[in-house]
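chain below, 185 aa
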Amino acid sequence: MTGHDDDERVADKRAASRMSGDGAPEDEQPPPAANDPVTEAEAKADAHYKNWQRTAADFSNYKKRVEQERSEMARLAKAALVINLLPIYDDLDRAASTVDSHLAGLNWVQGVLAIQQKFTRLLEALDVKELTADGEQFDPSRHEAIGQQPGPEGKVLHVAQKGYLLGDKVLRPAMVIVGDGSGAK
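prediction:
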C-alpha cells in the first residue's frame, strides 16, 4: 500500500497547489515572483502604453491649441489690415459724397467713384459692416460720444465718424454727437 499512499500524497500535493492557503479556487493564480520576466515585460508594456496615451492626448491638445492660435492670428491680422484701411475708405467716401454736380460726369470722378465701390465690396468680402448710429439710442459699447447738443436725451443726433463691425465685434466705434435732453429735435 505504500504505492497507494504515494499516489495520495501526490494527489494531495496537486490539490494543495490548486488551492491557496485560504481555499481560493484554481483559476485565481497567486501573484508571480517579483523577478518574473513575463511580469516585468507586461509592466513595461503597460507603462509604454500609458505613456503613448498621454503623448497622443498631449499631441491632440497641441494641434488644437496651434489651430486656435493660427485662427486668432489670422483674425488679428485681418482686423489690423482693416483698421489701417478704414481712414482711406473714409476719405474716399467723403470725396464721393461731396462731388459737385457739374463734375459728376468727368472721367476722373467716375474713376474715384469706381474705386470707392470696389473698396466697399472689398470690406463686405472681409465681413466688415458699417455700424448704424444715426437716430439710434446711444450705446457706449458701439458709439463714442464726442459731444452733446440739444435734443432727445441719449439719442444719437449726428455721426462725426462712421463705426464698423468685423463680424459681430466692434472694430471701430462710431464717433457721435448725443442729445442732452434739453430740447426735442
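The chain has two domains: 52-126, 128-185. Residues 52-126 form one domain.
thats it, cya
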